[in-house]
Amino acid sequence: MKQYVVGITGASGSIYGLRTIEALLEAGARVRLILTETGEKVIAYETGREPGEWIAEFKARFSDLLILEDNKDLFSAAASGSHLADGMVIAPCSMSKLAHIAAGITPDLLTRAADVALKQRRPLVVMPRETPLSQIHLKNMLTLAECGAFIVPAMPAFYQKPKCLDDMADFMAGRVLDCLGVENHRYARWKEKC
User: I need a labelling partner for 188 at 20 to 30 A (CA). Which of 20, 65, 159, 163 fits?
Assistant: First the structure.
């Protein structure tokens, strides 16, 4: 069974992380979810539902495939290179967390798990959600890309003619899964029927 770590930070765009989690669970993967404190607040603010409601829904649909991690628990399996995760996603990724990871500063489980993904040469997909981007943001993204991370900015396309926000979030979730090599049908690919 494939296993992934998914982090949701306090950047706007929590729906991207939630749709990615749902897609991974639908693919039969086990997901270790790490929420930052601000990420929890943003989920509630943007979706009108508390993180616990989302987690309960995922657990009801996918049984024991979802594991909620404590971002303060550096003794978690996700903090160790010996834990055989198949990759990690941070969606959305705040510029603060991106900077920590690029600098190798790991004060919490989310940044430590990302550091582990990089050092173990496992896929790390980072979805920055900020605009406009400063030179500091761009340099940090370049640093991570040079270390092997996939930088997938939250930039939904429109060739698939989205009809709602979920369509746009699914496009991004599908692109994330493409980076992980996880088969998915979250969006219509170019030249496919929409």
Answer: 65
Task: Please report the pLDDT score of residue 189 as a whole number.
Answer: 87
The single residue listed with the structure tokens 């909620």 is 68
The single-letter DSSP state of residue 31 is E
Dig out the tokens for 60 from the structure: 């009801």
Beta strand 66-69 with 88-93 is unpaired
Cis status, amide bond into 132, omega within 30 of 0: yes
Rounded to whole angstroms, the Cα distance separating 18 from 44 reads: 12
Tokens coding 87: 């990759």
Q: Distance between terminal CA atoms of the chain?
A: 31
Looking at the chain, the whole-number percentage of residues with pLDDT higher than 70 is: 99
- Residue 33 in tokens: 């979810």
Q: What pTM does this model have?
A: 0.96
